[in-house]
Amino acid sequence: MSSHREAPEISKDPVADSSDLYAFVDPEQPRMVTILANYVPLQDPAGGPNFFEFGDDVRYAIHVSNGGDARTDLTFALEFTTHVRNRNTFLYNTGPVDSLDSPNLNRYQTYTLTREAHGRRTVLAKDVPVAPANVGPRSMPAYRDLSRAAIRSLPGGGTVFAGPRADGFYVDLGSVFDLLALRPFQNLHRFRSPAAKSVNTLAGLNVHTIALRLPISSLTRDGSTPREVNDARSVIGVYTSASRRRARLLDDNPAHDRSHGSWQQVSRLGNPLFNEVLVPMVRKDAWNRSDPEHDRNFAQGVLQPEVSALLPVLYPDVFPRLAAYTKPRADLAAILLTGLPSGVVDGLQTFTGTRQADLLRLNVAIRPSAKPSPLGVLGGDLAGFPNGRRPIDDVFTIELRALAGLTIPLVDPAFTPDDAAGLVTDQLETPTFKSSFPYLATPHDGYSAHTAAAS
Hints:
This is DUF4331 domain-containing protein. By secondary structure, this protein is α+β, with helices and mostly antiparallel strands. The protein has helices at 143-148, 173-176, 274-278, 284-289, 300-303, 306-314, 320-324, 330-338, 395-403, 446-454, and strands at 18-25, 32-43, 58-65, 74-84, 107-117, 120-129, 152-153, 159-166, 206-215, 235-249, 258-269, 360-363. The chain has one domain (10-450). A hairpin with a 5-residue loop joins β7 (152-153) and β8.
């Protein structure tokens, strides 16, 4: 998974689990950047009466690095508050909900959004309503209108949304975790079993999304809107995090529980699959609690990735050239830890300096593609991953092909990838996404999910 349950401790704390991060030049408004940060993964839409929500005791944040040193320069932080209108009912809603302030919406959330830069904290929005859970057609008869009402304008021309969305990440988890049963050559696996049709395991599940659409000029180091791809100011690095107070005191009455101390980061995410695949299990929780600027401590997993060593073992004679390649994976280090310098890929650079850091890097001077390819840069589409990430990008296939050796020639032209490196995929169709902000699809409703499962 991109970052769903990717570490032992955060798998026990889903409300603080950073599950996916997207950053792309907005196709509706190309002078803007849209950043989507997902949390609370693997939500069953019918999971009531206590439907999924953000945590009141969690600080959610989107961090931006624009100074060329991989350190955080801007932070957009959100803190949530839960409200209950009728304390004498167990119901989430006591009747049909037709507006965000409907008296029938018994349990609802609001949030405050702040911008932090150079030690200065500015409140951008306060008491903003969160889109509620999509309970079902009787409870939320016009849910799309309800969720659209949660999209709010920000000072300076920005836009914000917080609430549930359909999970946009697509991958066949059952196949991946069954000793890397990969397509299209499952029949060549060392441990043979009948081939099965590819399944998008996350189809039908929801997440909670924080969506920001911000002017490019508000994210660059000098307030400019760069037009030249090779301009160092055109590249920003993004990561998302979730933090908790260092101590929590429990009372006999849960309403009197209190959290104390400074904020401690417990989850983060830059590039998809980084902690999931490249960090050893015993270090995953430490990675979640560290800042990207210290990622040189985890670089070994990038330079010598375990998956690249496993592929030739699990698929005898399929990856002979990969098996013989013993050099450190400088291609992966460039893509994931420093960004690609000019000259490696024609028309693209995502370099943020020599400091190694897991950041989702975006060149804001590259305009949105008229015909996006799910394979991003590997598919000839420079507006896609690893130049930022869009919901359409098939990051599992892209990263798997890179791990299989397809990107080694970027830094080592003498290497010829195995034919299989350009074929490996989970063979999933690209899901349908919204064509407008916040781009991820309307969350699945509990009633329809229940009836679909029963049919």
